[in-house]
Structures are given as structure tokens and as C-alpha cells.
Task: structure prediction
Amino acid sequence: MAEETFDPGSELAVRRRKLQELKRRGEDPFKIDRFDFTHRAAQIQAEFDNLEGQPVVIAGRLMSKRTHGKVSFAHVRDSSGEIQIYASVNDLDEEQYERFKDLDVGDIIGVNGQVFKTRRGEITVKITSHTLLAKALRPLPAKWHGLKDMDLRYRRRYVDLIANPEVRQVFVTRSRIIQFMRDYLTKEGFLEVETPMLSPIAGGANARPFVTYHNALDMQLYLRIAPELYLKRLIVGGFEKVFEINRNFRNEGISTKHNPEYTAMECYQAFANADDVMRITEEIISGAAEKVTGSMEITYQGVELDLTPPWPRVTMLDAVKKYSGIDFSTIKTAEEARRVAQQQGFDIPDRAGWGQVLAEVFDAAVEPNLIQPVFIVDYPVDISPLSKRKPGDPEFTARFEPFIFGREMANGFSELNDPTDQRERFEEQVRQKEAGDDEAHPLDEDYILALEYGLPPTGGLGIGIDRLVMLLTDSASIKDVILFPTMKPKD
Result:
């Protein structure tokens, strides 16, 4: 990258000259490798009665500074919050005071001082000495709260976090949601595990993968699109309850609900079925809501939602009939399904099977109407290659997806454990891939081999953590809940 040039009168240039002067005096702040502090800002605020008049040492970023002749006020922010500091020529010698005045907003400083309260009642630290710990060579945006360029906020998340405490709180909440999920599953007896991110086969879901290459092994590898098949291998191996919280990668479009890499939780329980993991789904989502908001009744984008279990269950057939008027139970062939759906104005791929047509109509006509929590159940076999057939109705599977605010929040089912049926479904997926479906599931011989050793009846679940965080932090875009979302580089 070419070296930047600055207008000699600009603030950027002024800050660099200040740094050069510090170095000339032998006071390079970047050579300081640690600083011992005694208190955080929030602790001083909370414990003022005990700390009044006592010495404290704090450290943080200078967020504001107001100089009035021989006295100055400023605010320092650390990870707990902000606190006011007060500098006076009466408490510092003139040289020290001038150096304090020379600080810039954004600088990282350490402060020794005493706790007191101003005449206006603000808890403050009166400075007895200060240390510049890192020089901020770029100024913070003066009016970041009014900035309309969301693209810049996502690209410079570090500045967004400095200037906007509410953004930082979103990610604190995200951490609490993940911790709740981990604690819940651990309490339920699940074992946390890790499975490969790189695999010779991109399996576990229908999606277009990212492809990479391993030079030493001279082989093509894929970033995983889901950990499902590895986790079920662990159930075969004798672990009865396992879960993983980690990244998945899908080489697909970007939107307010999609990012090429995202975080998901997947869990699998032996000797359980879809009903069991639906209970887990309700309890995790509603429990996380109560943990971070204090209630199972929340407001998202101005809409009141009640996440209290149990959630209603509606078959995909019934939902499609209600919102589109098409009764797929009376339609027996793929050709007729395509014709009827196209006549109703739905955009249907020319080679779509019966189940795919049903799903396409569902996505277009039904999904936007599913505002309050609901489980959509009984998905067609041809769009559920890893799900067990529904007892008594083999054209459908014991699969479910919960929807909230018109968005799929999770996916779960009774796992297909018949190796013969699994091979047939994989082979059908291969035929679809050969016909041009880039998202069709590949044939995984090793997974079929694992099934031949015996997979007990198993219930499986995957929850998209990013969408859950969006819901519980009232965030409109998935980019708002991912610290560093995928962005196209600027020229």
C-alpha cells in the first residue's frame, strides 16, 4: 500500500508531530509494555462511598477533553464504562499539566489520582500523575452517532466499538447468549466436541462450498458447510450426547440474513427423536431470551413476540394450503406440482421435484407470515436427504424448522440411520448435482460405512447463532451481530 500523505495543517499531521516530539524527548509511548491499574471506571462509580478521598489508578481511552485555563476535565473509558477525570495546575506541576493539555481525544492513558465528587455531583478522579500509554494517530469521528455510512462502520468495526457503546453491548450480549447455550447443553449432559473445518467432502447440508487445496497432500479440500456427519459419527462411536459451537462456510449470497461464514450450534442425542430436540430448541431460544432481556416476551423491529414455550406445530402442507391456497395433498406428480405453482405465479425451476415445488411455494408464500414462534414440521423426503422418514407417511420426514419473525431459526429432525436408504438418497442427490444443482449433497461413502456399524435412533438440531443474536438484540442486519462481517474490498 502506498504511503499516505497528509496536509501539514491537518489533525493527522499534528498528531504525528506530537509523537515525533515525544520520541525526541525519549518518551515513546509505544515502548511501554504494561500498566498496573487498581480500579475500573464502573467499580469507582459503584463503590464511591468507600473510595471517596482514596487513591486509585485507572487506565483507558481519552474520550473527551475540555480545558479552561489552569484546569481541565476529561472522560476516560475502559471496558466497564466511563469516568470523569480532573487535572489542575495546582495538583500537577506546570510541565505535567501542559503535557496533559497536549493529549488528544483517542489517546490511551494511565491515571493516578484521588476519588472525589464535583459540585455538580459527578464522581471524578483528581489526577496526581498520568502516563501516555499509546498515541492515537487518527482522530475519532466527531459525529459518529449520526454517520449514515453503515459500510464504513462494518469495515472499521474497531472505530465503531470505540465510538458507540451500544454496539459493544451487542457483542457482550452475543457472548452471554453463547454461554447460556453452552451451559444449558452441558447441564443436559451433552459433551462439547470439535470436528474438522477442512474435509475432503462438503457434507451435512445442501449448499455450495468453498474449495481450497492442500499442497502437501496434493488434494482438494472443502471448508465445512456443516459438522453434522462428523457429529453423527461420534454417536456411532458411543457418545450419546454431543454438541459443537463453531463456524460454517457457505459460498452463497450475502444479505441482511446471510453471511458466507456464520456461527452455529449443532447437537445430537442418541435414543431421541425430533420431538425431543424440538423441546431443546424451545428451551434454548426462550431461555436465552430470558437470560439476556429478562423476559420471554420481547420486541423485535417494533413487533412484540412471545417466545414462551410450547410453540405450535404446523405441517408444511397445511401452512402452504393456508397461505397459498394450493392443496399439495391432492397433487401427485412433480409435473402437476410445477404447473399448478407456476400458474399461481410462483417461480419454479423447470426440473423441480414435487417436494422442491412445495418448498419453493412455502418460502415465497408462507415464510413471511410466520411472525410468532412456530414449528413447521413434516418436510418432503426429496429436500431432506439426512432425515428419517415419518412413521406411517414415508414421503415425508420427521423434520422441523422453527420460524420467528418470518425467519428460519433452526433445523432439526430424527436422523436417518438406515444405511440402505441413506445411500439411495445420496445417489439421488448425485443425480441432481449432475443435472446442475450445485447445492446437492455429495455421496459420502465413509459416512454410509459408519451407519453400517449402527447409528442408534438419534435426534439432531442446528441453531444459527447469528440470527438468534439478531433477534435478542433487536438488530436488523446479520452484519450488526458479526464483529467482522465479510465485505468486498474497496479499490
The mean pLDDT is 94. The chain has 15 helices and 20 strands.
